[in-house]
Amino acid sequence: MKQKFILRLTSIFVFVFILMGTFITTEAAVKKVAIGTFANGAKSRYGTLACSNLESNIFSGLVQNKNYEVVERAQLDQIFRELGLQNSGVVDSKSAIEIGNLSGADYTLVGKVLTAEVIPFDNILYRGYKGKVAFEMHFVDNKTGLVLYSDVISDTDSQMYSPGVSVNERVLISGAAHNAANKVLEKMNEITPLTGTVLNVDRAEDVVYFDLGYDNGVREGDTYTIYKEGAPLVHPVTGEILGIKETTLGTVKVKDVKSNYSIAEIKKEKSAFKTGDKIKRGE
């Protein structure tokens, strides 16, 4: 009798341990990002406007995406001042690790506006003005200090010529910065995939519904992988939960996006999809 009680108690303990591990890992899947003040490398009023618009658009995009948590601006500004990093547009390995230690952020995004200009264009068929913004971004892992991604992201916005209508330069720069910010967010999502849960599998329509939508950064045509989570991966020495085993079940392609959920066509199904399976961006 006593032996059965001990075995039952042990089973309950193991179950609770796995359950707690799942919750801890799920919580850790939300990545915390520090967004530094972007430097005005263009040295112009357009550059200042572009910096402001890039920061606000990227911040808003991350806040709306449940895959991320953003460090409060006041806290980060204080940290940057202490480290002497204001308006530099770069973060070295040592500073990145310090930012992580002081703010709890997993990643730091910094950068510099290289180009912010409004120029006329005339390609015979169309005349008008084009706003252009080029942004040098650096996405850094605060645990290792390694730069995960570094590149120049650029985009434009245009206004067609109309007699008697003056060019709105601020709108063009803001539009170009908004478009460039979307590219930055897409790149960040590639590096840290968006994850969610399958809500329903419709066999008649050969589609799945899942709990991520436009507000989370899902776009029509995106490919997502459906997978099943298994037991926690526990370090044998430290006991630290490092992650969860994953079994890939197949892939889907998004066909319709709502504000808080999406519908995707089943493309490849190695094992039957079920409600409650996990889903993440990419293949």
Structure commentary:
The chain is an alpha+beta fold. The protein folds into two domains: 30-191, 3-Layer(aba) Sandwich (Rossmann fold); 195-281, Thrombin, subunit H (Beta Barrel). The chain is 33% helix and 38% strand. It is built from five helices and twelve strands. It has helices spanning 2-28, 45-64, 73-83, 93-103, 169-191; strands at 31-35, 39-40, 68-70, 107-122, 127-141, 147-160, 195-202, 207-210, 223-234, 241-257, 262-269, 278-281. The strands form two sheets. Strands 1, 2, 3, 4, 5 and 6 form a six-stranded mixed sheet that branches. It has a six-stranded antiparallel barrel with strand order 7-8-11-10-9-12. The chain is flat and about 60 Å long. The termini are far apart. Residues 9-28 have low confidence and may be disordered. Pfam families: FlgT_C, LpoB.
Keywords:
single chain; 283 residues; alpha+beta; Rossmann fold; Thrombin, subunit H; 2 domains; six-stranded mixed beta sheet; six-stranded antiparallel beta barrel; 38% strand; flat
Explain the layout of strands and helices.
Layout: H1 2-28, E1 31-35, E2 39-40, H2 45-64, E3 68-70, H3 73-83, H4 93-103, E4 107-122, E5 127-141, E6 147-160, H5 169-191, E7 195-202, E8 207-210, E9 223-234, E10 241-257, E11 262-269, E12 278-281
Parallel strand pairs: 1-3, 1-4, 2-4
Antiparallel strand pairs: 4-5, 5-6, 7-8, 7-12, 8-11, 9-10, 9-12, 10-11
Helix pairs in contact: 2-5, 3-4
Q: So what's the overall shape?
A: flat
Helix content: 25-40%
Query: What do we call the CATH homologous superfamily of the largest domain?
Result: ABC-type transport auxiliary lipoprotein component
Average predicted local confidence, pLDDT: 85
Strand percentage: 35-45%
CATH architecture of the largest domain: 3-Layer(aba) Sandwich
CATH top-level class of the largest domain: Alpha Beta
Secondary structure category: alpha+beta
The tally of strands reads 12
Query: Which consecutive residue ranges, at least 5 long each, have pLDDT under 50?
Result: 9-28
Give the H and E element order: HEEHEHHEEEHEEEEEE
The radius of gyration over CA amounts to: 23 Å
Number of helices: 5
Largest sheet: 6 strands, mixed
Report how far the terminal alpha carbons are from each other. Answer: 51 Å
What is the number of domains? 2
